[in-house]
Structure formats: structure tokens, C-alpha cells
Amino acid sequence: DTAVSQTPKYLVTQMGNDKSIKCEQNLGHDTMYWYKQDSKKFLKIMFSYNNKELIINETVPNRFSPKSPDKAHLNLHINSLELGDSAVYFCASSQAGGSQEAFFGQGTRLTVV
Amino acid sequence: AQSVTQLDSHVSVSEGTPVLLRCNYSSSYSPSLFWYVQHPNKGLQLLLKYTSAATLVKGINGFEAEFKKSETSFHLTKPSAHMSDAAEYFCVVSLPNSGYSTLTFGKGTMLLVSP
Q1: How far, in Å, CA of A99 to CA of A83, rounded?
Q2: How many CB pairs under 8 A join A and B?
Q3: Which of residues 65 through 104 in chain A touch B, CB cutoff 8 A?
């Protein structure tokens, strides 16, 4: 049983397109996140949702819009894709509380051509 | 504010020799600290975490880390490296007082293991 699953694993698309990445967790966690890993492997948080409410929204272009239909799902929609959006995007979840570790999905490698 | 500094971008060891990956943190409060590992083209896996209990923390695959408040360090060690340990390692800090996890990642250390 995969704890945090995200689809697709690979996504190749042209500039200007709109795409979505889906994420689901079956751990019963209250909080879900999207992280971006750049080409130098640096990981930075993009968004965090707690019980379907947005609680962290880092400086991310508003072309990126997270959507949480329920607390087990957090999808990421990206409009008007740009070359610089190419990266690996990781979904994660955790229990509430700052001392709790996050559980990560396998990542989605997005390539914009 | 919180941050972590991983002092080495790459560490090379021979199989069977000890591993030391260095991490220093900065935090306004007593932090929670984690080490994650990322194998090539894989997700991130938690190795171990420190949350103000014992200062010496044991993790999976023989790794351990010691929290030293006076040195603001949380170095990761393993007595004997295996080839399968070759991966990227991330030191991570979080504020335990917040209502949710606020992970701040270091820039990572690539561990290379030679036969």
C-alpha cells in the first residue's frame, strides 16, 4: 500500500499548456504539502493545506493553484507552463504538529519543452 | 526564522569506512531535526528524527545522529558504509511549536561510496 501517491510520475509538455498533478495519501494525515525540487536538488515548500484549508503559500507564481477536494487529496494545477517550471514536484503529508515528520510521494518529474 | 547548513555538498568514502555528514542549524526555538535520504530518481525517505527526547538518535540502516545544542549541530554518522548508502542526504529543521510541519531543507550532501 503506497502511503503517498502522486500521478503522473513523468510529465513532458509544451510551453503554454495547462497541466495537473494529483496526490493522494492514505495515512489519515491532516496536513498535505507540495514541494519543488530544482535541478540542484534544492527542496522548497510551495503550499501547505491543513484539513483542506490553505495555511502556507510561499512566493509562487499564481499560475500554480493547489486544490484540496478533501483532506486525503491535494492536487496541483499549473497554467501557462514555462520552461522554468521544469523540476521535480513532491507531494507530502504529515500529522498536525511541527515535530511531525512528513511522508513524501515518489515525485513527478515535469519537463517543459 | 530557521535554517540549516550542510557543510559538504559531496562526501566520498570507501565501502566499510565510517560516514560523517555534517549539519548545522539555526532556529529561534528548540527545533525538531530530521535527516532524509533520496536515492536516484526516488522520493524522500525519513532516516531519523530528533524531537527533544534523547540527544543521540538512532535511525534506519545503521545511521544515527547526535543533537548538540551548544554546537547547534546534528551530524549524521554510520560506522561502516555500504554501496547501497550512495544517495543524497538532506538535513531538515522544523519548528515544533507550530501547529503543522514547517520543514526547511538543507541543500543536500551527495554521499559517494566506492568499492
Answers
A1: 36
A2: 72
A3: 90, 92, 94, 96-104
